[in-house]
């Protein structure tokens, strides 16, 4: 503030410079106003989010990506997550036979960033509670009602899972929600039905095992038949090559070898027409 000087010598007091005070005060007000305006015109969008601009409650359609942005200070920003979200659903659903099953599912989804303004305008920020969860329940009930309990408990559950996922994509994609995956975590059947299905599966496995054993035995029988046929063919070929003359000649060769041996022996000559020598070794 300006210094006020008083004179006691009978002169008039010196008044402060009001013009300078007003100018300094005005500059301070302008600086504060600029700071407030700058803060109001700057917004930050965190990672994994988009910002949807609204002006006096009306969605403008402008979408801000991650980072810092300068905007019209009259506009407001609604931040919406585009990260993957999860919803779990446990429900009792009917099968094709009319049996009630307990089914636990998980849905993975995220907001389509290009349709964030549409979602905010037509549904709101709580779109998961308004459309995602109801559509999930509806799809689960609709698909399971067209499948048997055996399908849901065995390998058919993968087909059920694919059909639920396809149905959800058809319903949610046009409304700005991207379905990533649907997971069937658990299926609980009535105890008697579960035991019946397991017994049926065991019987099918036993039948397959027996079929394998029979096939193996059949192959073994075929192998033995081929082996026996080969031996029989061999014997026939050998028999055709053995004649009486050959046997007599082999007998003569054996007699000659025995005659040249130094061991004591008795040789009895058989029928001179076709007999062979009979060799006896005395003890």
The largest pleated sheet is described as: 3 strands, antiparallel
- SSE pattern: HEEEEEEEHHHHEHHEE
Helix content: 40-55%
Question: What assembly state would you assign to the polypeptide chains in this entry?
Answer: single chain
- Beta fraction: 15-25%
CATH homologous superfamily classification of the largest domain: Band 7 domain
**Overall geometry:** elongated
Number of distinct helices = 7
Terminal CA distance: 156 Å
Q: What is the CATH first-level class name of the largest domain? A: Alpha Beta
Spatial order of the strands forming the largest sheet: 3-2-5
Structural class: alpha+beta
Give me the CATH fold name of the largest domain.
Tetrahydropterin Synthase, Chain A
Query: Rounded to an integer, what's the Rg over CA atoms?
Result: 51 Å
Count of the domains: 3
Structure characterization notes:
The protein is of the alpha+beta class and 283 residues long. The chain has three domains: 18-81, no CATH class; 85-190, Tetrahydropterin Synthase, Chain A, CATH 3.30.479.30; 244-280, no CATH class. The protein contains seven helices and ten strands. It has helices at residues 18-40, 116-122, 127-144, 149-153, 157-172, 191-241, 244-259, and strands at residues 42-45, 49-55, 58-64, 67-70, 75-81, 85-94, 100-111, 177-188, 266-268, 278-280. The strands form four sheets. It has a three-stranded antiparallel sheet, covered by helices on one side. Strands 6-7-8 form a three-stranded antiparallel sheet. Helix 3 packs across helix 5 (157-172). The radius of gyration is 51 Å and the shape is elongated.
